[in-house]
Design goal:
The structure is a single chain. It contains 18 helices and seven strands. The chain is mainly alpha-helical. Among the domains are: 2-72; 369-426, Orthogonal Bundle (Muramoyl-pentapeptide Carboxypeptidase, domain 1). The strands form two sheets. A five-stranded antiparallel beta sheet has the order 4-6-7-3-5. A two-stranded antiparallel ribbon has the order 1-2. Helix 9 packs antiparallel against helix 10. The longest helix has 48 residues, at 23-70. It is globular.
C-alpha cells in the first residue's frame, strides 16, 4: 500500500498550481490524473475489503474446526475438507439471485414432464424392475414414484451439480443470511466424509449443498440414506440401490402410503364454492362426491376410506386436482405445489395414464416479482395479511388473496393475476 500512497502523492505534485497555464490547457492532464487516482483508490478499497473478508473467513473457519472437533470429527477429515478452503463468490451470487418472473403452471409442467423424460422413465422402470420391486417390498413406495423423483431431481442421474459441497456450504454458513442452517448442514457433511461414505473431493452437488442423485441435503442424508448394496457406504452418488432405497426410506418414514396414489385431475361442478379449495380443507372422498366432485372423465370418485383436498394451481380457469396423503409427503421433499404435481403427473404418465384433460390457455401471462410484491403491499394496505412482502406466492399470500376475492365477490381461488393487481389498485 506504500507504493499506492507514493504514487498518489506524485500525482498531486504533478499539478502545478502556480503555473500560468490556462484551465483549458490543464484540463486533459488533470482529468487523466483524476482517472488514474480513482482507479488506484478503487483498487485499494477492494483489496482492503477482500483482505478483511479473507481474515474474517479464516477466523470463522477456525471456530468451525473447533466445533467439529468437539463433535468428534477427525483431524484427517478436517485437513482433507477444510485446508485451503475459500469462499465461493458464485454461490453468494446464486443465493441472492431471485427469478424475475413467477413460474406459471403450464410452463413449469411443460419443462419437466416432457415426452423424452416420460419415455426414459418407462425405460428405467423396465431396466430396474427387479431392484425397484424389492425396494417397494421393503419400504412401500411404488416404483413409478421413485423414478419420477429421480427424473425431476437429476434427470435420472445425468446431472448431479458441479459445486464442491463443502465449499458451497462453508460459503453459505459464513454468510449471515442463513448462517445457522448452513452451519448445521456443513457439520453434517463433514460427518458424512468422516464416516467414509465419500471423500471431500467427490462430494459434488448443487450450489446450495444438495447432493447425489436424489439431491439430499447432508442432514437428510444423515437421517435417511441407506446402504442397500452392502458395501459399507451409503453412496447416493454412484449406487442405484443406495439411491432408490434412500429415497424410499425418506418417503416411507415421512408417512408415505403404499396403497394410495398422489391425487388425480377432477371435474368441478359449475356452482362449486371455491372457498373449499386449498390444502387446509380436507374431506373424505364420499363427502367430495356429495358435493359434486367427479373424476375428470365424469365417473364417480373411488369408494375408498381416504381424505383429500382440492387445489387449483392455475386458478379456477385451470385444472383442478384432488390430492391425497402422498401429495403432502411430496411437499416434504420440496415445498412447491408445482413440483408435487409434476412428480405425480410424471409418475402417472410413465405407466400409461393420459395427459391432463383440461384445455390449456392460448397464453399464460406471468407476473414479475415486482408485481407480486405490489399485490402483497396492496393486500396489506387493505387489511389482509399476505405475510412478508417478498415477491413469493406462498400459502399465506394465497389465503390473503382468497379473503380479498371473497369481499370483492370474485371467484375465491387464491390465484394471483394481472387482473387481480389492477383491481387491488382501484380499491
Amino acid at each position: 500500500m506504500y507504493i499506492y500512497s507514493l504514487y498518489i502523492y506524485s500525482l498531486l505534485l504533478s499539478i502545478d498550481y502556480s503555473s500560468k497555464q490556462t484551465c483549458r490547457q490543464m484540463a486533459p492532464t488533470f482529468k487523466k490524473n483524476i482517472l488514474i487516482l480513482t482507479i488506484i483508490l478503487t483498487t485499494f478499497f477492494i483489496l482492503t475489503r477482500q483482505g478483511a473478508c479473507t481474515d474474517n473467513f479464516s477466523s470463522w473457519l477456525e471456530d468451525l474446526r473447533q466445533e467439529a472437533r468437539a463433535k468428534g470429527i477427525s483431524e484427517a477429515t478436517l485437513h482433507e475438507a477444510l485446508d485451503n478452503l475459500q469462499p465461493i463468490p458464485r454461490v453468494i451470487e446464486l443465493d441472492r439471485r431471485q427469478p424475475e418472473f413467477t413460474q406459471t403452471f403450464w410452463r413449469y409442467l411443460d419443462a419437466r414432464v416432457t415426452e423424452d423424460r416420460i419415455e426414459r422413465g418407462r425405460m428405467f422402470l423396465e431396466i430396474h424392475a427387479e431392484l425397484l420391486d424389492s425396494i417397494e417390498r421393503d419400504y412401500g413406495v411404488q416404483p413409478r414414484f421413485l423414478v419420477a423423483f429421480w427424473g425431476l431431481e437429476t434427470n435420472f442421474g445425468d446431472y448431479l451439480g458441479s459445486f464442491p459441497v463443502i465449499g458451497s456450504l462453508a460459503t453459505l454458513a459464513h454468510d449471515p443470511r442463513r448462517s445457522d442452517f448452513f452451519r448445521a448442514e456443513l457439520l453434517a457433511a463433514l460427518t458424512i466424509i468422516d464416516d467414509g461414505h465419500i471423500s471431500a473431493n467427490e462430494m459434488i452437488g448443487s450450489w446450495a449443498g444438495a447432493m447425489g442423485q436424489p439431491q439430499f441435503m447432508p442432514s437428510t442424508f444423515v437421517r435417511f440414506a441407506v446402504d442397500a448394496d452392502g458395501d459399507g457406504r451409503r453412496d447416493i452418488w454412484h449406487s442405484l440401490p443406495d439411491v432408490f432405497a434412500s429415497a424410499a426410506n425418506f418417503l416411507s418414514k415421512s408417512g408415505w402410503q403404499r396403497d394410495t396414489t398422489w391425487g388425480r385431475e377432477i371435474k368441478l361442478p359449475p356452482d362449486f364454492p371455491l372457498e373449499l379449495t386449498g390444502l387446509e380443507v380436507e374431506k373424505s372422498l364420499a363427502a367430495w362426491q356429495v358435493l359434486g366432485i367427479r373424476k375428470i372423465n365424469g365417473d364417480d370418485l373411488p369408494r375408498l376410506n381416504i381424505k383429500g383436498s382440492i387445489i387449483l394451481p392455475a386458478g379456477h380457469a385451470g385444472p383442478a386436482f384432488l390430492v391425497y396423503n402422498n401429495y403432502h409427503i411430496t411437499l416434504q421433499w420440496n415445498r412447491s405445489d408445482l413440483y408435487a404435481i409434476a412428480v405425480g403427473h410424471l409418475a402417472d404418465r410413465m405407466v400409461g395414464k393420459p395427459p391432463l384433460a383440461t384445455v390449456r390457455p392460448a397464453s399464460e401471462e406471468r407476473l414479475s416479482r415486482n408485481q407480486v410484491e405490489k399485490i402483497q403491499e396492496l393486500l396489506t394496505a387493505q387489511g389482509f395479511d399476505p405475510g412478508p412482502i417478498d415477491g413469493v406466492i406462498g400459502s399465506q399470500t394465497r389465503q390473503a388473496i382468497k379473503e380479498f376475492q371473497r369481499t370483492a365477490k370474485l371467484p375465491a381461488d387464491g390465484h394471483p393475476t394481472p387482473e387481480l393487481l389492477e383491481m387491488l389498485g382501484k380499491k
